Structures are given as structure tokens and as C-alpha cells.
Amino acid sequence: MPIRMVLFDLVGTILRPAVPVEETYAAAAARHGLPIDPAVVAENFQRALANHGHRLRAGVPSDGDDRVYWREIVGESLAPALARCPGKAGEIAEELYLRYGSGEAWRLYPEVRGVLDALQCAKRPLGILSNWDRRARRVLADLGISDFFSALFLSAEMGVAKPDPRVYRLAAERLGLPPTALLLVGDDPESDGTAPRACGYSTWLVRRPEDDLESLLPWLAGGV
Fold first, then answer.
1. Fold of domain 5-16+105-221
2. Cβ atoms of residues 142 and 101 within 8 Å
């Protein structure tokens, strides 16, 4: 079946942090008098994401907010610093939560705007399918690309996250399209690759830095 809508993942696919996460976290802690080595933050951050991966599989809040999850991630990432003043944890977490809800914290990959323009000119309907919360709406608006997308599917609004099969089925149902009419473009081999393919989606993985989204255009032009 021909592709009738192209859905994009967000982080790692069309945008990235403007500054490495560990540097932003460490700077926030330092502003509160709790210095910490960014290298330690980086290690703790990756460990925290891995430790909380089960949460995405078990289900997420469906109220559009994900503050509790990120408060836990921040707490574990900055644990050595926060041990000196646990009372600062909530304040620092909220500061970072708000920062990452602004376009100032993010950058588009260089080719993204041109690729979106080309797809729009080709009359390709576009959407977002991402493990994120309602902050994504402001981020996309701040970055000047929200008008490209006619549908936004965010895990914290849907109550289920990739790679749970339900998220792909629910997106298709809400679009009124069969999964075989959808293409998911992302960077994660499981969440944007094997899992949606098992549900009937077509998929296309970007492999940065070796590749970028410009390679998607000739692939789509090939007749899918």
C-alpha cells in the first residue's frame, strides 16, 4: 500500500539538545551551589534512563505531563551533588523541566527544515510519534516547524509509549489509516524499527552521523 502519512520521531531524528545534557544539568546544580563533574552526570543520566526504561513499557501518565518521571531522572543524574542538599532536588528538577520545554534548549539538525519543505511540496502529510510530553508542542513552535505537522502523537498524552505495540495501533486508529499506509522515521532500531514493523508500518532509520534525513527523499521518491 502507498505511504499516506510520514510520522517522525523527535529527539535524535529531527532535533537534539543545543548543549549536551550533562553540561546543562551540571550548570543547573552549580547555580544552586552544588557543583558536579559533567562526566559524572553523563554516566548517571544514561544509567537512570536505562533503569527507568521499564516505566515506558509499563505505561505512562495520560495527562500530557511527565514531571514525576523527569524528577526521578534528574535526581539520579545529580545524586552525588544532591546528597549534600536533598532539599534542592525539586527546585532543580523543575528548572530543568521548564528549560527543556523551550526551543532554546534544542536545535534542529541542519537538513531538517529543507527535508520538511521538500516533503510538504510533494504533498506528503506529516506527523510526530514520539516518547515525549506536551512540552513538545511548544518546542516545535519555538523552532518554527510546528506547521509542518498535522498530527502529534505524544506518549504522555496517549498513556502508552514506544515500543509498546499499542502506541502504533492507537496512532493508526486516530488517523483513520491502516498501519500499512504509515511510515515511521526515527533513530531507534527497536522503537522506530522492529516494533512498528511488527504492527504493519513501514520504517526508515536515520543513522547519524553517517547519514541524515536527506537520504529519505530519494527513498520516498522511489515509489513507496
1. Rossmann fold (3.40.50)
2. no
Grid cell listed for 191 = 522503537
Torsion of CA 193, 196, 202, 207, to 10 degrees: -20
pLDDT attached to residue 172: 98
The answer to whether domain 18-103 has CATH 1.10.150.720 is yes
In the chain, domain spans: 5-16+105-221, 18-103
- pLDDT of the residue at 61: 55
Nearest to 177 by CA among 63, 6, 14, 55: 6
Cα–Cα distance, 46 to 153 (Å, whole number): 25
Could you tell me if 163 and 190 are in contact, meaning their C-beta atoms sit under 8 angstroms apart? yes
Give the chain's residues under pLDDT 50: none
- State the Cα torsion 206-212-214-218 to the nearest 10°: -50
